[in-house]
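Anyone able to model this chain together with manganese (II) ion?
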Amino acid sequence: MERENAWKKYDEKAIECLEGISARYRDFLDKGKTERECAAYAVDMAEKHGFIPLEKAIAEGKKLEPGAKVYTAPMGKAIMMFIIGREPMEKGINIVGAHIDSPRIDVKQNPLYEDGDLAYLDTHYYGGIKKYQWVTLPLAIHGVVVKKDGSAVNVVIGEDENDPVLCISDLLIHLSQEQMQKKAAEVIGGEDLNLIIGGRPLKDTEEKEAVKANVLGIIKEKYGFEEEDFLSAELEIVPAGRARELGFDRSMILGYGHDDRVCAYAELEAMFMIEDVPQRTCCLLFADKEEIGSVGATGMQAKYFENAFAELMNLTGEYCDLKLRRGLAASKMLSCDVSAGYDPNFASAFERKNAAFLGRGVCFNKYTGSRGKSGSNDANAEYMAEVRRIMDDANVSFQTAELGRVDLGGGGTIAYICALYCMNVIDSGVAVLSMHAPWEIISKADLYEAVKGYNAFLVNA
Ligand code: MN
Ligand code: MN
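re: yes, here you go
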């Protein structure tokens, strides 16, 4: 069954709304190029919309009434927001969850060296990337350096028009006879991803590595940290520059990190659209570390969601372990993550009847996984039926898809982790072209439909 392109149904008012969301989303992408930056942006928005820190509510022993709005941002890399509903949480809550980490290149702990009169940072890539895509591009560094005294230096270099950018070189085509015979996975190796950061030696110095010494001097002067402080830093190398409108008709957005910030941003808009006190408690969740298996203290496998759920039950006066378990099991979730958009250039990678097309609306993946659905959260038919009803009632354009052709590859999301509580979870997201490339492509229409769909789910599920 072919679904209609969503653009065909829009009137002037819808287009105006769609363009507003798209412009605000581009600002989110430009300011949120790391999980920390995305979490900080979301915290800022939450506070502007009257959400209070969960920690403050706990400290004050504040009783949370229906309509209360709270948020918590574990380690500044994940975030959860809640609007307390009229029903007790024991009956379950409605959750939209996305991830805010994106594939990138991280700076190593001992990164700095000099070779051939150039200074470099050595790196270790993060998540699944085609390494050859990341050379010969203008790159920026975003992150934090924490010094021994606990003070943190925020670093953003390569984004301001007057900033320099950084770059990884590739071999000239003239000398690439051997390189061009290699498999794509080996054309650029992990240890070849060395970032050029300087090329001007200090004058009148005894230093053997005068280019490196000069760069260190600049770092010290501009950011106030020393070579040793790289040991306790999280510096992420990302494409430099802003998200742009794409196409003569401006129908798409070319940006870094649509996976999965497009779903994260759609959740923000959907959450802040809620004006009346909802029936069931509404929850927005951004997780970190999805791209490397949802591990670590800020990944979805950590217990912060369960802990926050328990704290909220406590503050609404209904906490006990049994009610907590009942509440988690009775909850409903959209695991919001991007899906592979059908790409006519690579048509054989897809099965058209079950592919997501750019512009045809928010996408639902009953299952993901590899081979025989391995690693997939295969949502229940009953739940899928409920979601269809909610989308149709709210006039949301949606489509269903699998992640490409069977047996070609596959992927996972955070869905299976939340399903461990026995709650209903289904994957839902925006179709992306060139997923995990430095610059990915989405349709504004799909973003707009995701916002409407997530809002309808939060309020009506
Ligand atoms: Mn993702
Ligand atoms: Mn991904």
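The longest helix spans residues 12-31.
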